[in-house]
Amino acid sequence: METYRLKKMSETKIVYRSLSMVYFLFFFGIGALYTLLPLYYQKFGLSGTQIGTIMAVGPVISILFQPVWGMICDRFQAEQKVLACALTCAASIALLFPLMHGFIAFLLLFAGLQLFQSAINPITDSITLSFVQKQGGDYGNIRLFGAIGFAVAVWFTGTLAERFGLVVIFYVYAGAFLLGLWWVRQFPKVHREKTGSVWSGLGRLLRLPKYVIFLGSAFLIFGPMNAHNYYFSLLYTKIGGTVAGVGVAFLLFAGSEAPAMKVAGSLIRKYGILTILIVAGVVSALRWGWYASTPSAAWVIMLFFIQGMSVGLYLPAAATFIREHAPREVQVTAQALYSSFGNGLGTMFTSFIGGVLYDRSGIFSTYLYFSFSTVVGILLVIAITVLNTRTSRQG
Questions:
Q1: Which domains, from first to last, does the chain contain?
Q2: Among 284, 299, 276, residue whose Cα is nearest residue 375
Q3: Is residue 3 within 8 Å of residue 153, measured between CB atoms?
Q4: CA distance 125 to 389
Q5: Averaged pLDDT of the chain
Q6: Residues ≥6 apart with Cβ < 8 Å to 103
Q7: Where do transmembrane segments lie in this chain (predicted)?
Q8: CA Rg, the chain, in Å?
Q9: Could you report the per-residue pLDDT of 193-247, keeping only the tens digit for each?
């Protein structure tokens, strides 16, 4: 009996380490590629409009295909196979970038890259949440390795690019994703009892008022969190910061998410999911409002940990909310829809409105809009709290 218990503990540690490494490598690849990709396009003479058009493809692909990936996984219970396929195909497409040049070629390659990359995060989230629910532990303690990977990649790839040229971003991205394949083999097998078809489960999901309201709040809160990555360099240089300082800021911002994610699970258990979502939203709204008030570049750097208190708490709380409210047969689909609305549609809409405001009134009006959007998203989370209160009274 003791031998069996020790064997189970060893297996649990292997899975925990494997999940952590996949998050680390996935976000390492994301950090290596996306922070420098616009500069690579610029090197080949693409205009700002052309670069913006290519980058806008990402959210569109996420909106269209993340729910499809989720439904495939839920229908066939093939999370590991789909994840391995997505990692392999995304890495292979990345290696084609150095061989093809021009706006159309870059547009098609980036669309293909996004098609497969969009499957990875929601599937990994679903597997991780299922694992911690059965074996114990905190989602945030595993997810934090993604924040560490992104932070390390920003510095590491920037150093390599200065020495060997921007083309290295594709090799680092592909290498990280292909390394992730080995760790995916260690993932736990996900078996869920068939409680109905995916289509019926999806119908039930979209008839849940709390889930639908949550999608709206993710659109309004998570959209600005992502759009901030596109506009921060404009803000930072406007308030007197340097281009080199932008890289330092992103390193600190991403690094601050890890400790916040580590304590997120205990905070969620103590105060509740909705409370943490509201706190993360309030911190975000105050942050965007403060950025809109023309702060000094030095203070923006010194208060880098605000990102951890917002993004670092929001992501684990959001993933846990979905896990607890979605029907079992559509867990991956539920995660994918959330990612599609927040990371896809929310980012695209917020970036577009932010760009219009930037052209008309300047970067500070963009961040003022981020703050306004987040406040409305907080009100939707409060509406879910009210629904919970009414339900508990009726029960």
A1: 10-191 (1.20.1250.20), 192-395 (1.20.1250.20)
A2: 284
A3: no
A4: 28
A5: 85
A6: 46, 50, 54
A7: 21-41, 47-69, 81-97, 141-158, 164-184, 205-223, 235-255, 267-290, 296-315, 336-358, 364-387
A8: 21
A9: 554 455 566 677 778 889 999 999 999 999 999 888 778 878 888 899 876 677 7
Are 310 and 188 spatial neighbours (Cβ–Cβ below 8 Å)? no
Judged by DSSP in three states, 394 sits in helix
In this prediction the pTM is: 0.77
Residue owning tokens 């596109």? 230
**Size of the chain, expressed as the number of residues it contains:** 395
- Alpha helix (H) ranges present in 272-362? 273-291, 297-302, 306-325, 331-339, 347-361
User: Which residue type sits at 350?
Assistant: T
- Whether the CA torsion 191, 322, 64, 66 is positive or negative: it is negative
Contacts for 45 with CB less than 8 Å, ≥ 6 apart: none
Q: Report phi then psi at 183, rounded to 5.
A: -75, -30
- The whole-angstrom separation of Cα 84 and Cα 107 is 24
Cα 358 to Cα 348: distance, rounded to the nearest angstrom? 15
d(CA 235, CA 366): 9
* Both structure tokens of 304: 């880098």
Q: What is the full DSSP assignment across 8-50?
A: HHHHHHHHHHHHHHHHHHHHHHHHHHHTTHHHHHHHTT--HHH
Read off the amino acid at residue 75.
R
Of the chain, the end-to-end C-alpha distance in Å amounts to: 43
